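Standup notes
- HV: blocked on the assembly model, inputs below
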Amino acid sequence: MNGTDENPLDLLPEVLLAGCAVLALLLGCWLPRHRQWLAGALAVTGCAAGLVAAAVAAAGPTGTAFDASYAVDPVTSTGRIVILGGTLLVLLLSLTSPWLRAAPRETEFYVLVLLAAVGAVLLAGAQDLLLLAAGYLLASVPAYALAGFARDGRGTEAALKYYVLGALLGVLLLTGVTVLLAAGHGTGYPALRRELPDAPVGLVITGGLGVLAGVLFKSGGVPAHYWLPDAVQGSLAPVGAFLTTVPKIGALAAGYRLAAGPLADTGRWWPDLVAVVAVASMTLGNLAAFSQRDVRRLLAYSTISQVGYLLLPVAVAGRTALDQRALLFYLAGYAVTNLGAFAVVCALPRARHLADYRGLARERPALAVALVVCLLGLVGTPPTAVFLGKLAVFSAAFDAGYTWLAVVAAANTVASLFYYLRWIAPTVLGTAPPGDEDRDGDGGRVGNGNAGRAGADPLAGGHATGDATFAGGAVLVAYPAAAASVLLGLLGGPVLDLLAGPLAG
Amino acid sequence: MNPVNYLYLSALLFTIGAAGVLVRRNAIIVFMCVELMLNACNLAFVTFSRIHGNLDGQIIAFFTMVVAAAEVVVGLAIILMIFRVRHSASVDDANLMKL
């Protein structure tokens, strides 16, 4: 606790992102509608510059910034790189999508994405409960607006559900912060770690529950997952990709930091509780995914079950040496694989149901390969990144003495193969007459060739002329993401070693 | 005055708000109840700040007020939008998407 760590350059990636958001908003005010993509280009530039700054910071020493309230350590660095990379892919998905091009509020979309990304990064690095609460709200408020961006019936309903649940769980998070403040006489993690073991156990557990509620909401874990399927199904596809990837990374890093820091020495209630939540998340996510026919809803439930696996290292944080590497590697692998699957969904805007993918392998073989790689990746098939991530996560749970947790997670992994295969089978084996992907009439919220009306109404959008069945730009994200998923799996060893290193503070 | 009394008041406000969120159907009322819970938190923050003799709680209370204002703006916009689309502000009527 001294004044020597007040160097704004420690926060360069965050400053770049926030600055670009403000600049893009100003730029958007003055640009004519058909040149609003420049704001998107600025946002992409900001993300890329932030990525470079984050990579430089990752190579530098571990430390804290601003009175030890913000950590610059492997967790923050990996969080920054994955969040910025994910945001970059989402921005590319949006820029190449026909529905956003020259829409009346195009600039606002990029700005909201950037601000939500800043919030997620702050969540990952926060070492102070105040910053945690601020990061939660900064990551949530733009995301509510993004969910309802299309302003149609479903999008609005998704935004309402997302908002009501988010506001309620945000209050629970703040209540948790209040109680921890009462128990620990402070908000900084180092001080809390000293004080909490001597505080009344009831207070610590109540506070921990409140904070966990906030973390679960942002990561989309059971029992705070109700918003996720509706938000992903009802909002635009790139928004769904964003909501299921970027805030999760920040929230899980925040949960890990809490578990390894202030709550580490307060007893076994935290690992046991988070283990139960993890099992509920992976099991209920899988069970609900079995019966889905809408691809986005299926992906949403698949992410809920993925959060279950990702919560394993959060549960065993500080009880094994493998936890941090496992969490960070799985997060990176999950982000790139999930974004790849969503990119394929974005590329086929009118194929909303599993049946619409019948015969994709014949018509667009490359896209089908990307989809199959990403879906098998999400299952955890070698040699993809998620396979290594799952392996690392299971060994962390095993190493910490939670063998039953590793066994349940492995059983759930096998069960999850079923619903991914329900998607893969028609894609690879099915045959369909040319152009049959778009026979589902209600699919076309996007790309109807009429830019001014883009996204106005999902039911009316599909009847216009133009190539609405294939948004070619999205493959620019789908192929690299699928390739990265495999590459990250092949290069797993060296990458895993990079992710080790002590937490700051 | 004993600062613990403020904590009792805060707990009471929080309970009223939580009951309202769980029981009421109108989105605006749900929303106001959430704000009531938020302000119960703020009161507790300031009280703990007073009890501990440091400023941590007061700073959080200020932060919460500012950010909650931003949240309110977005929330009211969403409720207004759903009222335009569905002609109802009841959270039970939002049922386009289900399992």
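- HV (later): unblocked. Residues 3-87 of chain B form a domain with the Helix Hairpins fold (CATH 1.10.287.3510). Chain B is about 80% helix and 0% strand.
- Next: hand off to the docking folks.
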